[in-house]
Design a protein that fits this description.
Two copies of one chain form a homodimer. With 200 residues, chain A is an all-alpha fold. Chain A folds into two domains: 44 residues, Arc Repressor Mutant, subunit A (Orthogonal Bundle), CATH 1.10.10; 126 residues, Tetracycline Repressor, domain 2, CATH 1.10.357.10. In chain A, 68% of the residues lie in helices and 0% in strands. Chain A is elongated and about 60 Å long. The interface between A and B is large, with 45 and 46 residues. The structure holds a DNA duplex (30 and 30 nucleotides).
DNA sequence: ATAACAAAACGCAACGTCACGTTATTGATT
DNA sequence: AATCAATAACGTGACGTTGCGTTTTGTTAT
């Protein structure tokens, strides 16, 4: 790229300011939540002008979306040998961010604001969710290849069932998702075994 | 109740104004969506003062929540003789409001705003969701009684799986839920049969 | 020279509250 | 029976506040 060689004239953008904004936004997100997070508050804490923030991001929702994106950019699940364990690992990876108490509200909050703009919806969907689905497909495919699921299994449907439960419990109702829940989910999705009440 | 007998002095609250506000809010919700819905806009269309709105509801989210509550106040599912059909009927009843294109965003939007206030969260949960869960428990219990599910089935878990898929697809990603999807869901939850790809 | 920077101010939109005069109902007084 | 406070919700309109996204100004780094 010639962009890197021929540096632009004038003062270059400060990566330091960029990172300070992200850090400040992350902190404030954890402290006050998405609804009470303001651009002006972020600028003040980052020691940065609002102008600088708007030079990098076009809205509060977009800024928050970038923060939310990172922990969700899921790497591949290593093959443990047991496809069921791989699925469980994938579930835990999805759930993990929800354990941060600010994450769920911020996720739904950002999604909600981005929905005001009809094209922001697609942007969010593409940016946040596409990586997860690819990872999920790969994991379920291992189960199909191992013969644990029929060859013509509707994998995307299973991904929606899985994601649905996790989002519903974790992000919407903010209930913790336990190891027990993971076990029940794998049993239901792969083996078709209904969940049993835990003898407490 | 003595409240009804001994009416308060002064001008009584206008049920007409109350209903006009609800109607106007419902219209505007369908026209501009939750995010762009304003109290002032509702007041203007209803021909009502903002004060009157705040006399009945304490926030936009609370007002919208009342609108959302009505279609969800689920009646009992009649016993068709086939518990599986009862479950399918329950699923269709949950999905039905999502066919209104404004409903899903309004649901997530109102929920999100109510979460800013930590006690509004409980209010929403109690008001919107409790009825659905009772209905769902009854339907799954019929399956248990009929021997289609083990006696110690964790019914609440199944309700979460079911609700999760429906909310995830219908309210969050705004995808239509087809008869095919209903069939797959019943097969998975009750019979443990994985969903198959539809030969299109 | 040029462009990103921080700071500060702008206009805008919506918020929630308030004071005002009006209207509807109740309870006491004629 | 008719009248008249007292009361309370009404619609209107204006208020100050907040946060937005933009614009301006002077400074700093390349």
């Amino acid at each position: 790229m010639t962009d890197e060689q021929r540096r632009r004239r004038g003062r270059p953008r400060s990566e330091q300011a960029h990172d300070a904004v992200l850090a400040a936004a992350r902190e404030l997100l954890a402290e006050v939540g998405y609804a009470r997070l303001t651009i002006e508050g972020v600028a003040a804490r980052a020691g940065v002008g609002k102008t600088t923030i708007y030079r990098w991001w076009s809205s509060k929702a977009e800024l928050v979306a970038e923060i939310l994106y990172r922990p969700i950019s899921i790497e591949e699940i290593p093959e443990s040998g047991s496809p069921r364990d791989d699925l469980a690992a994938n579930i835990r990876l999805i759930v993990e961010p929800f354990t941060d108490p600010w994450y769920g509200p911020a996720l739904t909050g950002a999604r909600n604001d981005l929905n005001a703009d009809p094209e922001g919806q697609k942007a969010f969907q593409a940016q946040i969710m596409s990586g997860r689905r690819d990872t999920g497909r790969a994991v379920f495919q291992r189960l199909v290849d191992a013969g644990d699921l029929p060859p013509d299994t509707d994998v995307d449907y299973l991904i929606d069932v899985m994601s649905g439960l996790l989002v519903y419990r974790g992000a919407i109702w903010r209930q913790p998702i336990t190891e027990e829940d993971v076990r029940k989910l794998v049993a239901l999705l792969v083996d078709g075994r209904p969940p049993r009440r835990t003898p407490s």
